[in-house]
Amino acid sequence: MIKRFHAKETLPPIIPFLGQLDTFAGEFNDLYTSAFSGVSQKTPDRTKWDAYLKTPKAPAFLDQLFQLTGIGKIYQPGDNRNNNVWIENPNMDSVTFTEKFSPGKKLQLGDGRFFLTTTIDPAFDRSDQFEDGFTPLYQKQFLNYTSTSRYMGINGAIIDNWDEEPDPAISLDTDRWLTSIPDLTLGMTLNPNLKVLVQHGYYDLNTPFHQSELNITYAGLAAKIPVKSYEGGHGVSPYGTGSYDQVMQDLGVFYDQRQPKLATVKTAQAERATP
Amino acid sequence: MNMHRYLSCVVLLAAVMQVVPSYANDSITLTRPDRGAQMRLLRAYSPREQPSKRQSVPVTPQSVLNTVDDRIRVLFDRAADPSTRLVTVASANKAGLGFFVDNFAEMDDDRNGSLRFTEVKAFLDGRSPIAKPVVTEEIQIIE
User: Fold this and answer.
1) Is the residue at A111 inside a domain?
2) Is residue A61 scored above 90 in pLDDT?
3) Is A54 domain-assigned?
4) Which end of chain B is more exposed for a tag (fewer CB within 10 A), N or C?
5) Band of the pLDDT at B5, cuts 50, 70, 90?
6) What's the CA angle centered on A61, arms A56 and A66, to 5 degrees?
């Protein structure tokens, strides 16, 4: 999606393009399981991946990774892990993607439509100062409120203190870092009236939209939890989302809907599949 | 238009078009935060500096239900009286788990005033948003 955005001259219509991506993501995930899950393990095991690279299908798969991401190059016979990034590791993580996408520049992790203009990505910024001064100004001048306490701003330090596995009594065979589906499912079990709507930005590399679609579908929750994605980044904010009216419209429908009717809401994938 | 009416109009227009407030403190300049500030506000979390090397477990209805069961077990153990390993209204209250108190009567299937894990699990299984995977069992032919 990010390569599509930056290569504006060849911008294909988004819906059929998303359909192509769905298909390729299915192929990618199948190959992850059968061929390259070992490559990104702590102690890498490349046996299956190296065997796959010798098959006739491998060049087309590598080229598709290049064409969809814009990173790397067209496969040439004799290429190896030193000169073809996709041979080295087809399962590139999002942080590496932000670094390799454009030489000399780095994408924002939260919104791949934009390059970083500072040295620190906002997603990694641990600073607490509220740089734009808007809130203190607003409080003082508009609310007539002042405080002698130090204003903590966005409290970036919490990132290093956050514990995703707070309960040692729970055996975490599913990594809480990778998915919150079990916790969400428990929440919906304890409170069956809980309504959930997931809204994503297409260009968010921090929490990619398609993984939510897949996990919710694989868990058997697609009829209960609609996933909606928009032309935006992390948090689908009013500032940077192209179709923000649609965001609000979907929220309005969601708030008005009674729980049982959620089963009839079309998921994003189902909507794309509908001609 | 005579001079008097012209001057009146000018004065009125000047009054209507005046945008400067009487006191500087009455105004505030609202500016849109820069993109960096927006993204910091919106961040849900940040990936670790080094990507996770853990191998993901495939998400399936059964794998999710298994992990939910783990969490239900933890909640039950917390709410239970340590001496009997059963949940009573008093033990759940003491543990601060109001869920068991609020739903006690519905869960207490045998109406004996205490909850076994099987009773809690049966109650929560009935409320799960994930349908139980259908297990096809071979038909036993008893001769």
Assistant:
1) no
2) yes
3) yes
4) C
5) low
6) 135
Distance CA A134, CA A171 (A): 44
In a domain, A201, yes or no: yes
Look at B28 and A240 and tell me if their CB atoms are within 8 Å: no
Tell which of A69, A92, A115 closes a domain: A92
Domain limits for position A222: 166-273
- A12 token code pair: 């294909």
Count the neighbouring beta carbons within 10 Å of the beta carbon of residue A49.
24
- Which of the 8 DSSP states describes residue A34? I
H-type helices in chain B, by residue range?
3-16, 35-42, 61-79, 89-95, 98-102, 104-107, 117-125
Residues recorded for chain B? 143
**Contact at 8 Å (CB) between A121 and A106?**
yes
A190 contacts B76 by C-beta, under 8 angstroms: no
- Looking at the complex, does the CB of residue A163 fall below 8 Å from at least one CB of chain B? no
Question: Same structural domain for residues A172 and A254?
Answer: yes
Number of domains in chain A: 2
Examine the domain organization and report whether A182 and A266 are in the same domain. yes
- What pTM value is reported for the model? 0.75
Query: Would you say A81 and A106 are in contact if contact means Cβ atoms under 8 Å apart?
Result: no
Residue A179 lies in a domain: yes
Predicted local confidence at residue B32, as pLDDT: 54
- A185 and B128 within 8 Å at the Cβ level: the answer is yes
Between B33, B35, B65, which is nearest A134 by CB? Answer: B33
Write the residue in A125, A142, A170 that is nearest to B74 by C-beta: A170
Query: Any residues with CB less than 8 A from the CB of A212 and at least 6 apart, and which?
Result: A198, A200, A227
ipTM: 0.77
Positions of E strands within chain A:
198-201, 227-230
Last residue in a domain, options A92, A123, A138 = A92
Confidence at residue A178, expressed as pLDDT on a 0 to 100 scale: 75
